[in-house]
Amino acid sequence: MPAKIRLFGQEATYQSGKWECADVSLQAMLQSLVDPLEAHSQEADIKNARYAISRYGGLWLSPDLPPEPEPEPAVVPEMVEAKPRMGLGSLFRRLVSRA
Fold first, then answer.
1. Each residue of 16-27: b (16+ CB within 10 Å) or e?
2. Domain boundaries, the chain
3. Which superkingdom (predicted)?
4. Which helix (H) or strand (E) holds 95?
5. How far apart are CA 80 and CA 69, in angstroms?
6. DSSP string covering 47-74, please?
7. What is the C-alpha to C-alpha distance for residues 11 and 58, in angstroms, rounded to an integer?
8. 60: nearest Cα among 71, 69, 41, 47
9. Beta 10-15 vs 3-7: how paired, if at all?
């Protein structure tokens, strides 16, 4: 089943590694996102159409929208207090105070 999206007011359909669109320049722009070595399957079609939507900001038009994967919570490392280092400011202060 082809993946249909709407970008810039134009409908585009992606199926088996090929974008179809009435606007030739939009079709060329979308086709440039396709990996020619990618296997052509329903999952690959959906993945590529989702990437185009996320890249250019569009809408999903296919009737059966696949569920969004749950985002994993980001792991935040603990903050470690850094030791103050010698910087250019302290170097200039030492040079000026010696003069």
1. ebebebeeeebb
2. 3-60
3. Bacteria
4. helix 88-98
5. 33
6. HHHHHHHHHHT-EE-SSSPPPPPPPPPP
7. 10
8. 47
9. antiparallel
How many Å apart are CA 32 and CA 15, to the nearest integer?
15
Residue found under tokens 């010698």: 86
Using alpha carbons, list the distances in angstroms from residue 67 to 8, 15, 48, 50, 84: 24, 19, 15, 12, 48
Token output for 17: 């590694």
1 CB burial (10 A radius; 0-12, 13-18, 19+) = exposed
Q: What does the pLDDT profile of the chain (99 residues) look like in tens digits?
A: 688 888 888 899 888 888 999 999 999 999 988 887 777 788 888 888 888 888 888 888 877 765 555 666 777 777 777 666 677 877 788 788 876
- Locate tokens 């000026």: which residue? 96
